[in-house]
Amino acid sequence: MQYSMGIDAGGTYTDSIIIRDSDGKVMDSNKALTTYPDLLAGIKNSIDGLDEKYLKDVKMVSVSTTLATNTILEKNGYPVGLILVGDYEIPENMHVEFHTVIKGGHDHHGAELVSLDMEALEAFVHRVKDKVSAFAVSSYFSIRNPVHELAIKTRIQELTGLPVVCGHELSLDLGAYERGITAYLNAQLIPIANQFIRSIKEEISGRGMNARLLMLKCDGSVVGINEALEKPIESIFSGPAASLVGASYLSGLETCAVIDVGGTSTDVSMLENGLPELCADGAIVGGWQTKVKAIRMETSAMGGDSHIWVRNLKINIGPRRVIPLCVAAVKYPGFLEALRKGRIPGAMHLEENMQPTKFFIKTGVEASGLGKLEKELFDRIEDFPTSLNDIFWETQKTLSPGLLDSLIRKRLIQAIGFTPTDALHVLGEYTAWDKEASKVGAKLLERYTQIDHIKLCKQIKNDVARNMALDLVSFILKDVPSREIEKILLSDRFMQFRMKIPVVLIGGPVVSYIEELKQILDADIIVPEYSKVGNAVGAVMGKGIKRIEILIKSTYSKDRKRLVLLFSPQGRETFGNYPEALEYAEVLGQKLVMEYMTEAGLDKGQVQVEVSRKDISLSEAGTIPVETKLVFVGVGMPKT
């Protein structure tokens, strides 16, 4: 008997699951807390909770991870030298430390506009080679002719031996600057991806598992490990992609909307006829516009571990994630008593970091480069939860909340606080951790809201459900402002929003929100079995999907001879006539799809390739189009 394993390292939990290959039955699953900054420890803990008897027969392991996303958001990537080739206007907010713009580039037919300035390139490389770990290059219209990018790549490798990422290798979409940013971010991630994948391989082999390793991409497809190492940028937002794939598999639905309630956020997406909708312009991560094909989703910073805090009698949820009180009471023995006996701040002093339920603890990351005030505060925080109010009474100094924010961003400390997860514990609807800690926290907040702690928790639960519904409707009605949708959803005037497709809920205790959602949505709401580990299911059940685009354009040479140009991932080729180019393109597209499937370890016998064709013709041009775009979409399943 053979099995496959899925692992999803999410923002709060790392889930793992084992599925029997013969019939797709879930054999075992486990959840463990995600560990920062080293995700591998959480992955080990998650696998430790699985039945060992299955492990030796696991032949495939597929992983989805927040590693790439978090690295970009936290600005922890390796230093990279960015080279832009052509006539660029650099945005003022680019914030790339090592970059240059040199002469070169091509036109939309792939003809050279300006000769490549190799002297300027070499001067830049010599200046920064000891300060960077890789280079990224994007040339104007390299999607029509990548020769300048390839020449730069060869020369840099001759001079330095460092990795070089080319824009045309990651995207064939228009937008040279965005391709450059995509290559830059990808180059930042390569050393981190290498280390992570090497660690996963060692963990798998150390458990006696002779298994192939795959990674889930942000478009919901799986990728072979070699491509995952070359293009780690494509794993951004793989968590929401995993939830989409997992929801479809667990519910048996090819068309559905999915609400994934995680610890940090709520993500909404949709699957239609087995395929997700992709972002038209590429994913945006950390404020960077990329050319990465990711699923379109609506996301909000409200999840099970969002911080609930009070100010001026108003309840606020998020946007920051904290360790729930109920979890902290289990992780840190003695915390419950500290919560009970903690000094209570005055109502006038309340703000996000000054709450009766807010505590801080060191993460274990070594501190360096701290300012004087940062270091003073950091030294006051122990390996046991400490509140800002306690520090104030000990030092009689008013501390800036910005100092705490800085230490949190640097991953030196973590915050603990009251969350929607705690509210569910108080209501008895989810009791995985310490219910008493949640109850103590709710009663502390009761003093500042003038609302009974049970009613307070019910209100929090309703607010979370309303946010889920708002995200869903905003996703469906993407051209309608969210504030207008919110007015309708929050109205009690006998109205519901009707959904024509089922809504599948994925994530922790999502079953607790069904009744509240049904007050807002008239929909078939489904919580499938194993929904708590739906992302891990998605990681292992992702299909192999490869999209290949080939463009054929008719043009004229300088001596007015008709030419047919073909642009593909292999570069630019010239043909004497249109039928010859079309025939070649049809063969090439199929070939490139199948080569990818083989490299990724997918079953060629189960690959289906669909081809769509779009022609642009002018009436006076007769029957031959002036432009033809062929899109080959191959769909396959991993070998079992």
TrEMBL record:
Hydantoinase A/oxoprolinase domain span: 179-538
Transmembrane segments: none
Residue ranges constituting the Hydantoinase/oxoprolinase N-terminal domain according to the UniProt record: 5-158
Record-linked PANTHER family: 5-OXOPROLINASE (PTHR11365:SF2), 5-OXOPROLINASE RELATED (PTHR11365)
Protein name: Hydantoinase/oxoprolinase family protein
Organism: Methanosarcina baikalica
